[in-house]
Write a structure and sequence with these properties.
Elements (H helix, E strand, L loop, with lengths): L4 E3 L1 H14 L4 H16 L10 H10 L9 E5 L3 E5 L5 H19 L1 E9 L10 H5 L2 E7 L21 E5 L7 E5 L6 H10 L8 E3 L4 E2 L8 E3 L5 H15 L23 E9 L6 H16 L17 H11 L1 E3 L1 H14 L6
Parallel strand pairs: 3-4
Antiparallel strand pairs: 1-12, 2-3, 4-11, 5-6, 5-11, 6-7, 8-9, 8-10
Helix pairs in contact: 1-2
Length: 351
Protein backbone atom coordinates (compact mmCIF):
# COMPACT_ATOMS: atom_id res chain seq x y z
CA UNK A 1 0.00 0.00 0.00
CA UNK A 2 1.50 3.38 -1.00
CA UNK A 3 1.87 6.00 1.69
CA UNK A 4 -0.65 8.78 2.22
CA UNK A 5 0.08 11.92 0.22
CA UNK A 6 -0.41 15.32 1.80
CA UNK A 7 -2.57 17.66 -0.26
CA UNK A 8 -2.92 21.37 0.39
CA UNK A 9 -6.27 22.64 1.72
CA UNK A 10 -6.38 25.08 -1.19
CA UNK A 11 -6.10 22.27 -3.73
CA UNK A 12 -8.81 20.24 -2.01
CA UNK A 13 -11.13 23.24 -1.78
CA UNK A 14 -10.64 23.97 -5.47
CA UNK A 15 -11.20 20.36 -6.44
CA UNK A 16 -14.40 19.93 -4.40
CA UNK A 17 -15.72 23.27 -5.70
CA UNK A 18 -15.11 22.15 -9.28
CA UNK A 19 -16.92 18.87 -8.65
CA UNK A 20 -19.97 20.66 -7.27
CA UNK A 21 -20.01 23.22 -10.07
CA UNK A 22 -19.88 20.40 -12.64
CA UNK A 23 -23.11 19.09 -11.10
CA UNK A 24 -24.98 22.38 -11.33
CA UNK A 25 -24.20 23.93 -7.93
CA UNK A 26 -23.74 27.74 -8.20
CA UNK A 27 -20.19 29.02 -7.73
CA UNK A 28 -20.77 30.69 -4.33
CA UNK A 29 -22.54 27.65 -2.86
CA UNK A 30 -19.94 25.26 -4.29
CA UNK A 31 -17.10 27.24 -2.72
CA UNK A 32 -18.89 27.49 0.63
CA UNK A 33 -19.59 23.76 0.91
CA UNK A 34 -16.13 22.80 -0.34
CA UNK A 35 -14.57 25.12 2.23
CA UNK A 36 -16.55 23.57 5.09
CA UNK A 37 -15.68 20.04 3.96
CA UNK A 38 -11.97 20.87 3.97
CA UNK A 39 -12.33 22.60 7.35
CA UNK A 40 -13.67 19.31 8.68
CA UNK A 41 -10.51 17.54 7.49
CA UNK A 42 -8.27 20.32 8.73
CA UNK A 43 -9.66 20.02 12.27
CA UNK A 44 -9.34 16.23 12.21
CA UNK A 45 -12.92 15.16 11.45
CA UNK A 46 -11.71 13.14 8.48
CA UNK A 47 -14.76 10.85 8.40
CA UNK A 48 -16.93 13.87 7.60
CA UNK A 49 -14.76 15.88 5.21
CA UNK A 50 -13.88 15.12 1.58
CA UNK A 51 -14.45 11.44 2.41
CA UNK A 52 -18.16 12.26 2.04
CA UNK A 53 -17.83 13.70 -1.48
CA UNK A 54 -18.90 10.45 -3.15
CA UNK A 55 -22.21 10.47 -1.25
CA UNK A 56 -22.90 14.10 -2.09
CA UNK A 57 -22.13 13.49 -5.76
CA UNK A 58 -24.53 10.55 -5.83
CA UNK A 59 -27.36 12.58 -4.28
CA UNK A 60 -26.81 15.49 -6.65
CA UNK A 61 -26.81 13.13 -9.63
CA UNK A 62 -29.81 11.07 -8.58
CA UNK A 63 -32.06 13.90 -7.40
CA UNK A 64 -32.06 13.52 -3.62
CA UNK A 65 -30.08 16.75 -3.33
CA UNK A 66 -31.15 19.99 -5.03
CA UNK A 67 -28.17 21.83 -6.58
CA UNK A 68 -29.97 25.20 -6.56
CA UNK A 69 -32.06 25.30 -3.36
CA UNK A 70 -34.22 28.19 -2.20
CA UNK A 71 -33.19 28.17 1.45
CA UNK A 72 -35.63 30.30 3.39
CA UNK A 73 -37.04 31.06 6.84
CA UNK A 74 -40.58 29.67 7.08
CA UNK A 75 -41.36 30.51 10.73
CA UNK A 76 -39.80 33.09 13.02
CA UNK A 77 -40.06 34.71 16.44
CA UNK A 78 -37.67 36.91 18.39
CA UNK A 79 -35.38 34.10 19.55
CA UNK A 80 -36.37 31.24 17.24
CA UNK A 81 -36.73 30.38 13.59
CA UNK A 82 -37.33 27.44 11.29
CA UNK A 83 -35.41 27.11 8.02
CA UNK A 84 -36.47 25.05 5.02
CA UNK A 85 -33.32 23.72 3.34
CA UNK A 86 -35.15 22.83 0.09
CA UNK A 87 -33.17 19.56 -0.11
CA UNK A 88 -29.94 21.45 -0.87
CA UNK A 89 -26.46 20.54 0.26
CA UNK A 90 -26.78 20.36 4.02
CA UNK A 91 -23.89 22.69 4.80
CA UNK A 92 -25.75 25.63 3.26
CA UNK A 93 -28.82 25.42 5.49
CA UNK A 94 -26.69 24.72 8.56
CA UNK A 95 -24.51 27.79 8.05
CA UNK A 96 -27.61 29.91 7.44
CA UNK A 97 -29.02 28.57 10.72
CA UNK A 98 -25.75 29.23 12.54
CA UNK A 99 -25.60 32.85 11.35
CA UNK A 100 -29.25 33.49 12.17
CA UNK A 101 -28.95 31.91 15.63
CA UNK A 102 -26.02 34.19 16.48
CA UNK A 103 -27.88 37.27 15.23
CA UNK A 104 -30.88 36.41 17.40
CA UNK A 105 -28.67 35.75 20.42
CA UNK A 106 -27.19 39.24 20.14
CA UNK A 107 -30.63 40.78 20.67
CA UNK A 108 -32.58 38.14 22.59
CA UNK A 109 -29.78 36.49 24.56
CA UNK A 110 -30.40 33.16 22.85
CA UNK A 111 -31.11 32.05 19.31
CA UNK A 112 -32.47 28.63 18.33
CA UNK A 113 -32.93 27.77 14.67
CA UNK A 114 -34.34 24.50 13.43
CA UNK A 115 -33.97 23.00 9.94
CA UNK A 116 -36.21 20.74 7.90
CA UNK A 117 -35.57 19.31 4.44
CA UNK A 118 -31.83 19.46 5.07
CA UNK A 119 -29.10 17.02 4.08
CA UNK A 120 -25.93 15.60 5.58
CA UNK A 121 -23.74 18.55 6.57
CA UNK A 122 -20.45 17.15 7.87
CA UNK A 123 -19.43 17.30 11.54
CA UNK A 124 -21.63 19.17 13.99
CA UNK A 125 -18.50 20.87 15.35
CA UNK A 126 -18.46 23.15 12.29
CA UNK A 127 -21.65 24.78 13.52
CA UNK A 128 -20.65 25.50 17.13
CA UNK A 129 -17.12 26.81 16.58
CA UNK A 130 -18.33 30.12 15.01
CA UNK A 131 -20.23 30.91 18.22
CA UNK A 132 -17.11 30.44 20.34
CA UNK A 133 -15.18 32.81 18.06
CA UNK A 134 -17.56 35.66 18.96
CA UNK A 135 -17.75 34.82 22.66
CA UNK A 136 -20.94 32.76 22.60
CA UNK A 137 -21.88 29.20 23.51
CA UNK A 138 -22.96 27.03 20.59
CA UNK A 139 -25.19 23.99 20.48
CA UNK A 140 -26.00 21.81 17.49
CA UNK A 141 -27.63 18.43 16.90
CA UNK A 142 -29.01 16.41 14.02
CA UNK A 143 -31.05 13.35 13.19
CA UNK A 144 -28.65 10.88 11.60
CA UNK A 145 -28.84 10.45 7.83
CA UNK A 146 -29.67 6.74 8.13
CA UNK A 147 -30.96 4.44 10.85
CA UNK A 148 -28.25 2.18 12.25
CA UNK A 149 -29.50 1.67 15.82
CA UNK A 150 -32.53 -0.15 17.29
CA UNK A 151 -34.39 0.99 20.42
CA UNK A 152 -32.45 -0.34 23.40
CA UNK A 153 -32.98 -4.08 23.65
CA UNK A 154 -34.67 -4.30 20.25
CA UNK A 155 -33.62 -5.31 16.74
CA UNK A 156 -35.48 -2.94 14.36
CA UNK A 157 -33.38 -0.02 13.14
CA UNK A 158 -35.27 3.14 14.10
CA UNK A 159 -32.51 5.52 15.24
CA UNK A 160 -29.44 7.12 13.70
CA UNK A 161 -26.15 8.12 15.26
CA UNK A 162 -27.89 11.43 16.12
CA UNK A 163 -24.83 13.59 16.85
CA UNK A 164 -24.66 16.54 19.23
CA UNK A 165 -22.03 19.25 19.60
CA UNK A 166 -21.39 21.93 22.21
CA UNK A 167 -18.88 24.76 21.94
CA UNK A 168 -17.79 27.28 24.56
CA UNK A 169 -15.09 29.96 24.53
CA UNK A 170 -12.18 30.02 26.94
CA UNK A 171 -9.19 32.30 27.37
CA UNK A 172 -6.83 29.60 26.04
CA UNK A 173 -5.95 28.99 22.39
CA UNK A 174 -8.57 26.25 22.02
CA UNK A 175 -12.28 26.65 22.71
CA UNK A 176 -14.16 23.76 24.27
CA UNK A 177 -15.60 21.74 21.36
CA UNK A 178 -17.49 18.55 22.12
CA UNK A 179 -18.72 16.71 19.02
CA UNK A 180 -20.05 13.22 19.57
CA UNK A 181 -22.40 10.65 18.17
CA UNK A 182 -24.85 8.99 20.53
CA UNK A 183 -23.39 5.66 19.41
CA UNK A 184 -20.08 4.16 20.55
CA UNK A 185 -18.69 4.90 17.08
CA UNK A 186 -19.98 7.03 14.23
CA UNK A 187 -20.91 5.21 11.04
CA UNK A 188 -18.42 7.41 9.19
CA UNK A 189 -15.57 5.78 11.13
CA UNK A 190 -16.82 2.35 10.13
CA UNK A 191 -17.11 3.37 6.48
CA UNK A 192 -13.57 4.74 6.63
CA UNK A 193 -12.25 1.43 7.98
CA UNK A 194 -14.18 -0.43 5.28
CA UNK A 195 -12.58 1.72 2.57
CA UNK A 196 -9.13 1.07 4.04
CA UNK A 197 -9.67 -2.66 4.46
CA UNK A 198 -9.22 -2.50 8.25
CA UNK A 199 -11.15 -4.13 11.09
CA UNK A 200 -13.11 -2.34 13.79
CA UNK A 201 -12.80 -3.01 17.52
CA UNK A 202 -15.26 -5.13 19.44
CA UNK A 203 -17.95 -3.04 21.11
CA UNK A 204 -18.80 -0.82 18.15
CA UNK A 205 -21.35 -3.09 16.49
CA UNK A 206 -23.12 -6.37 17.10
CA UNK A 207 -24.87 -8.74 14.70
CA UNK A 208 -28.51 -9.58 15.00
CA UNK A 209 -27.43 -12.58 17.06
CA UNK A 210 -26.02 -10.18 19.64
CA UNK A 211 -22.43 -11.21 18.99
CA UNK A 212 -19.63 -8.70 18.29
CA UNK A 213 -19.25 -7.63 14.67
CA UNK A 214 -15.75 -6.49 13.69
CA UNK A 215 -15.75 -6.64 9.88
CA UNK A 216 -16.87 -3.20 8.61
CA UNK A 217 -17.76 -4.75 5.24
CA UNK A 218 -20.57 -6.56 7.07
CA UNK A 219 -21.98 -3.46 8.73
CA UNK A 220 -25.41 -3.97 7.14
CA UNK A 221 -25.71 -7.32 8.93
CA UNK A 222 -25.86 -5.73 12.38
CA UNK A 223 -26.31 -2.45 14.20
CA UNK A 224 -24.40 0.20 16.11
CA UNK A 225 -24.43 0.24 19.90
CA UNK A 226 -25.52 3.35 21.83
CA UNK A 227 -23.16 4.99 24.30
CA UNK A 228 -23.97 4.03 27.87
CA UNK A 229 -26.62 1.51 26.88
CA UNK A 230 -30.11 2.84 27.66
CA UNK A 231 -28.73 6.31 28.47
CA UNK A 232 -27.37 6.74 24.96
CA UNK A 233 -30.64 5.43 23.57
CA UNK A 234 -32.57 8.02 25.57
CA UNK A 235 -30.27 10.83 24.47
CA UNK A 236 -30.66 9.79 20.83
CA UNK A 237 -34.44 9.88 21.15
CA UNK A 238 -34.30 13.33 22.77
CA UNK A 239 -32.18 14.64 19.88
CA UNK A 240 -34.61 13.10 17.41
CA UNK A 241 -37.46 15.03 19.03
CA UNK A 242 -35.59 18.35 19.08
CA UNK A 243 -33.93 18.15 15.66
CA UNK A 244 -36.51 16.06 13.81
CA UNK A 245 -40.09 16.04 15.04
CA UNK A 246 -40.03 19.64 16.34
CA UNK A 247 -38.99 20.85 12.88
CA UNK A 248 -41.37 18.70 10.86
CA UNK A 249 -38.37 16.63 9.74
CA UNK A 250 -37.85 12.88 9.57
CA UNK A 251 -37.42 10.75 12.70
CA UNK A 252 -37.83 7.03 13.37
CA UNK A 253 -39.14 4.99 10.46
CA UNK A 254 -39.48 8.16 8.33
CA UNK A 255 -35.69 8.56 8.07
CA UNK A 256 -34.36 7.90 4.56
CA UNK A 257 -30.94 6.26 4.19
CA UNK A 258 -29.19 8.98 2.22
CA UNK A 259 -26.60 6.53 0.84
CA UNK A 260 -28.91 3.70 -0.20
CA UNK A 261 -31.53 6.06 -1.64
CA UNK A 262 -29.70 8.97 -3.25
CA UNK A 263 -32.78 9.67 -5.36
CA UNK A 264 -35.03 10.48 -2.39
CA UNK A 265 -35.42 13.59 -0.27
CA UNK A 266 -34.08 12.76 3.17
CA UNK A 267 -35.91 15.59 4.99
CA UNK A 268 -33.01 15.67 7.43
CA UNK A 269 -33.67 17.62 10.62
CA UNK A 270 -31.10 19.66 12.52
CA UNK A 271 -30.89 22.62 14.87
CA UNK A 272 -28.28 25.21 15.74
CA UNK A 273 -28.39 27.39 18.83
CA UNK A 274 -26.33 30.28 20.17
CA UNK A 275 -26.24 31.66 23.71
CA UNK A 276 -24.94 35.15 24.43
CA UNK A 277 -22.86 34.73 27.57
CA UNK A 278 -23.28 38.41 28.47
CA UNK A 279 -26.99 37.74 29.06
CA UNK A 280 -25.93 35.73 32.12
CA UNK A 281 -22.46 36.70 33.27
CA UNK A 282 -19.53 38.88 32.31
CA UNK A 283 -17.92 37.14 29.30
CA UNK A 284 -14.36 37.75 30.52
CA UNK A 285 -15.21 36.23 33.89
CA UNK A 286 -16.80 33.25 32.17
CA UNK A 287 -13.77 32.59 29.96
CA UNK A 288 -11.24 32.99 32.76
CA UNK A 289 -13.29 30.73 35.04
CA UNK A 290 -13.54 28.11 32.31
CA UNK A 291 -9.80 28.20 31.74
CA UNK A 292 -9.06 27.93 35.47
CA UNK A 293 -11.35 24.91 35.85
CA UNK A 294 -10.02 23.27 32.69
CA UNK A 295 -6.42 23.73 33.83
CA UNK A 296 -7.29 22.03 37.10
CA UNK A 297 -8.56 19.08 35.09
CA UNK A 298 -5.51 19.01 32.81
CA UNK A 299 -3.23 19.03 35.87
CA UNK A 300 -4.81 15.95 37.40
CA UNK A 301 -2.29 13.10 37.59
CA UNK A 302 -3.18 10.48 34.94
CA UNK A 303 -3.69 6.82 35.63
CA UNK A 304 -0.68 4.55 35.06
CA UNK A 305 0.03 4.09 31.34
CA UNK A 306 -2.62 6.67 30.49
CA UNK A 307 -1.89 9.92 28.60
CA UNK A 308 -2.36 13.32 30.20
CA UNK A 309 -5.88 14.62 30.66
CA UNK A 310 -7.22 16.56 27.69
CA UNK A 311 -10.42 18.53 27.20
CA UNK A 312 -12.60 18.20 24.11
CA UNK A 313 -11.17 20.56 21.52
CA UNK A 314 -7.61 20.61 22.87
CA UNK A 315 -5.04 20.76 20.08
CA UNK A 316 -7.54 21.46 17.31
CA UNK A 317 -6.31 24.99 16.64
CA UNK A 318 -2.70 23.84 16.33
CA UNK A 319 -3.75 21.05 14.00
CA UNK A 320 -5.72 23.48 11.86
CA UNK A 321 -2.70 25.77 11.64
CA UNK A 322 -0.30 22.95 10.75
CA UNK A 323 -2.29 21.73 7.74
CA UNK A 324 -1.83 25.08 6.01
CA UNK A 325 1.86 24.28 5.71
CA UNK A 326 1.93 20.48 5.87
CA UNK A 327 -1.25 19.74 3.94
CA UNK A 328 -4.01 17.20 4.64
CA UNK A 329 -2.98 13.54 4.54
CA UNK A 330 -5.24 11.53 2.23
CA UNK A 331 -5.30 7.77 2.57
CA UNK A 332 -4.34 6.16 -0.77
CA UNK A 333 -7.78 4.60 -1.18
CA UNK A 334 -9.50 7.91 -0.51
CA UNK A 335 -7.19 9.63 -2.98
CA UNK A 336 -8.03 6.97 -5.57
CA UNK A 337 -11.75 7.57 -4.98
CA UNK A 338 -11.32 11.33 -5.43
CA UNK A 339 -9.40 10.73 -8.67
CA UNK A 340 -12.25 8.48 -9.83
CA UNK A 341 -14.81 11.19 -9.08
CA UNK A 342 -12.70 13.72 -10.97
CA UNK A 343 -12.67 11.45 -14.03
CA UNK A 344 -16.41 10.84 -13.85
CA UNK A 345 -17.42 14.50 -13.72
CA UNK A 346 -14.65 15.79 -15.96
CA UNK A 347 -12.62 17.99 -13.62
CA UNK A 348 -8.90 17.90 -12.74
CA UNK A 349 -8.03 15.76 -9.70
CA UNK A 350 -6.57 17.43 -6.60
CA UNK A 351 -2.83 17.99 -7.00
Amino acid sequence: MPEAVNTSPEALRGFASNVFRSLGVPDTDAAKVAGLMVEADAYGYDTHGVFRLRQYVARLREGGCNPTPDIRVVAERDATALIDGDDGLGHLAMMAACDLAMNKARSAGIGWVGIRRGNHAGPAALYVRPQTEVGMIGLCAAVGSANHVPPFGGTELLLGTNPIAVGAPSSSVDPFILDMATTVAAMGKIKTLAQRGEQMPEGWMVGRDGRPLTDPQRKDEGFLLPIGGPKGFGLSVAIGLLAGTLNGAAFGSDVVDFTKHPEKSSNTGQFVAAIDISAFVDPDLFESSVERIFNQMRDVAPLPDHPAVRLPGDGKSERRKSVETDGIALHPKLRAELDKIASEVGVPPPT
